[in-house]
Amino acid sequence: MNRYTCLVLTVQFDYSLPPELIAQRPAEQRDHSRLLVLRRADGRIAHRRFLDLLDYVRYGDVLVLNNSRVIPARLRGTKAGSGGQIEVLLLEENAANDWWVMLRPGKRVRADTTMSFLTRSGRRAEVYARVVEKDPEGRCRLQFSGTANIAEALPALGEVPLPPYITREIPSDGVDDRERYQTVYAQSPGSVAAPTAGLHFTNTLLEEIRSRGARVCLLTLHVGLGTFAPVKAENLEEHIMHEERYEISASTAETINQAKRSNCRIIAVGTTSLRVLESVAVTNQGKLVECCGRTGIFIYPPCAFRVADALITNFHLPKTTLLMLVSAFAAPGQTHGRELILSAYAEAIRERYRFYSYGDAMLIL
């Protein structure tokens, strides 16, 4: 078995994490989280604070942020007839009141099953849904009624869909997840999981970055649950990537294109931003254009990158497409990025960094 074959096996992207290092709550202040800085050229590591990002931002750099807003996508209700409790997680809107969702429990739910919903305080709401169909992946398509648009009713009905590894005994435990599981620059609603690399930024930090001559621009990728799901295929080439909706404006495209022409760095904030940049560039001879669509790009070693020169990211779950992406970015066009990343993760574990969505950050230069 050659080296390349080993690198495309899912098991090669596994690692062990002490459970106590899974962050259950955010840092007291967003930009006070820790920052592990990895230099790709020689594998050197520095341990800093996120505020120290200012030491690494240069005049002319462009930071690219994903402005997708997390929606309160978890609904609770009861099934008609049996009265059994059911949990609905909204995944993607097809049209007003027409959504693909995940149901729990959902195995026995059939087409035409109806359900009613509760408010966040546990009271019965006059909002209902009917199962229209189920797909091979286990998702259900729901048609909502009792409201003109379920998306507008979510603030009263929905809960923040925190990842399952956040297991506080008291769900809120003093944390306002509606505020903290959201970037300060979130605008466009549609994500069911936060673009977590952006959670570390404050408006003050962004203004300081701009004051140093760097530019900040926005794009949108609505994050779905598939982003965080472990890869089940034994060989990465057999994995079918989930698709997510994205949009990039003319101004963002031109800012980045101009920076590339001037040999200025593009710093992608988060794997979601990076996926949009590469998705658009790969179909436009390396340049960015105003567009919207769906991307199912799957990035793993070896992979050459057309746009981003640096990446701000969090620490990712084992055997996920996110870990594979950062491994590819750690050694563009080569196959040793996995070793660099897993070595950095091992040091982060020794240094007691906090992992996953509410955890610490990493800067790959």
Description:
The chain has 365 residues and is of the alpha/beta class. It is 20% helix and 27% strand. The chain has 2 domains: 3-70 and 177-364, QueA-like; 74-157, Thrombin, subunit H, CATH 2.40.10.240. The protein has helices at residues 3-7, 150-157, 177-180, 203-211, 250-261, 271-282, 321-330, 337-350, and strands at 34-38, 45-49, 62-66, 68-70, 74-79, 85-95, 98-104, 114-118, 124-134, 140-145, 188-191, 215-221, 244-248, 266-269, 291-295, 310-314, 361-364. The strands form 3 sheets. It has a 9-stranded mixed beta sheet. A hairpin with a 5-residue loop joins strand 8 and strand 9. Helix 7 (321-330) crosses helix 8 (337-350).
List keywords for this structure.
17 strands, 20% helix, 365 residues, six-stranded antiparallel β-barrel, 27% strand, nine-stranded mixed sheet
Topology:
Elements: H1 3-7, E1 34-38, E2 45-49, E3 62-66, E4 68-70, E5 74-79, E6 85-95, E7 98-104, E8 114-118, E9 124-134, E10 140-145, H2 150-157, H3 177-180, E11 188-191, H4 203-211, E12 215-221, E13 244-248, H5 250-261, E14 266-269, H6 271-282, E15 291-295, E16 310-314, H7 321-330, H8 337-350, E17 361-364
Parallel strand pairs: 1-17, 3-12, 3-14, 4-11, 14-16
Antiparallel strand pairs: 1-2, 5-6, 5-8, 6-7, 7-10, 8-9, 9-10, 12-13, 13-15, 16-17
Helix pairs in contact: 7-8
What is the CATH homologous superfamily assignment of the largest domain? QueA-like
- With strands numbered from the N-terminus, the spatial order across the biggest sheet is 2-1-17-16-14-3-12-13-15
Note poorly predicted spans.
1-6
Assign the CATH topology of the largest domain.
QueA-like
In terms of DSSP E residues, the strand content is: 25-35%
Major sheet details: 9 strands, mixed
Radius of gyration: 21 Å
At the first level of CATH, the class of the largest domain is Alpha Beta
What sequence of helices (H) and strands (E) makes up the elements? HEEEEEEEEEEHHEHEEHEHEEHHE
Q: Any guess at the CATH architecture of the largest domain?
A: 3-Layer(aba) Sandwich
- How many domains make up the coordinates? 2
Terminal CA distance: 31 Å
Secondary-structure-derived class: alpha/beta
Average residue pLDDT: 93
Helix count, DSSP H or I runs of 4 or more residues? 8
The amount of helix comes to: 10-25%
By DSSP, the count of extended strands is 17
Shape: globular
